[in-house]
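Z., the sequence and structure:
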Amino acid sequence: MKRRLFVAADLDDRSRAFVAAAIERLAVAGLGMRYAPREKWHITVAFLGDVEDDRRCDIEAALASACADRRPFEVVLDHIGAFPSAARPRVVWVGSSTAQRGFDGCATAVRSAFQALGFRFDDPAVPHVTVSRLKHRSGPLPVPELPAPVTLRVDALTLYESVPAGPTTAYRALFRAAL
């Protein structure tokens, strides 16, 4: 059996409040869309995709090893952005306006450990919380003024499984590795 797996940093209450405020301001600015529910908010470090069950122990060991060599780090949340760009938004996110060295170093270590297991990563890790996926959008992303930035301290990473839950998905924590 295959499982859809990813590794993420969990949000604390202050970070969740910031993301909620950003979503409220996006809605007021006219971005009417379906937003990701609060329980799905996280900062993805590595998306592994559909993985055979028998690989889980190796994945957990690689994550634990990569995290053992890293220190806790901070991520500043202060920006609304979009992929592929704010001019052509398809994925709307809340994240950092500047590079986050601690996150970058940790993501590089974790992804390197997974690359040794045969996983590939085509896009760089960007510290962000996905708040919506747009199916049809014309025009640029509105960028409302945000509340004061918050700093999230990350002291562990979690291996999650994305499981079907009716018309959407739910995330189930499988393993947690301390930094």
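The helical segments are 13-28, 56-68, 101-115. The mean pLDDT is 95.

Let me know what you think.
H.
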